[in-house]
Amino acid sequence: TLALRQKGIQTEFMFKEGGVNDGLKEALAQGATFAVIIGDQELEQEFYTIKHLKEKRQFTVKTLDELISL
Question: What is the pLDDT of residue 49?
C-alpha cells in the first residue's frame, strides 16, 4: 500500500479471515472502486488480481506500475 500511497492513491489494507468475498463487500460498502487481491496464487505466480467492484469485473497485472496507471 505504501507504493500506491506515494503516488497519491488512497489505500486501505484489509486482512479478512472470513474470506475474500467478505472483504470485497466491505470495500464496496466503504465506496472503493477497485480492490487489489494478493493471495497464495498471486504470490506464487507474481501478479496482482484487480477487481473493479462497481463493474464486477477482474483482471491481472504483473507490476505495480501497471496497477498505478489504471
Answer: 95
